[in-house]
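Much of what follows relies on a compact textual record of a protein's fold. Each token is a code from a learned vocabulary of local backbone shapes. The record below shows the convention in full.
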Amino acid sequence: HILMFEKFISSIHCGFEKNPLNLTDDDVGSSYAFHVYCLPSGDSPSRFQQFACDLAWDILVDGVEQDLKKIGYKATGKGLSAGFMTEFGAVRGTAAALEMVSPLLDMADERGMSWAYWAYKYFNDFTTQESRQGFYDERGQLEELKLKYLSRTYPMRTAGEISSYHF
């Protein structure tokens, strides 16, 4: 089992001096969950919006990486917490909108962080702004282009230390 803890969403740093779950050094059962918000709008976001999102993502992900080092994460997988981006994306299924998300996924891959896309399907709930953010469109059809952009391989187990991987 993995216990997740997270920071307040508008903070760059978590404020924890150590893993708040008080796990022992040999217990790797926790994950530092974080959200990365910068939602591209429309089917074709502007260059300025791409620049602003890239800058925001750099700042937020670097802050998370600093937090992880402070609370006991080690890139070898041996440590008290791993990074898990639990909310990001929430974009329309156009190539231009999905291209904006690729740099963020690359950042997560470079740092060995896990992630889960925000919206599976629109359920008319108050946390999802529009119906086009999920994996299924308004007619219930799978957004195949979105699935293609968000499908990546990752090493489930390795013999040794991972220095890098890319899909």
The helical segments are 47-71, 95-110, 144-150. Residues 47-71 form the longest helix (25 residues).
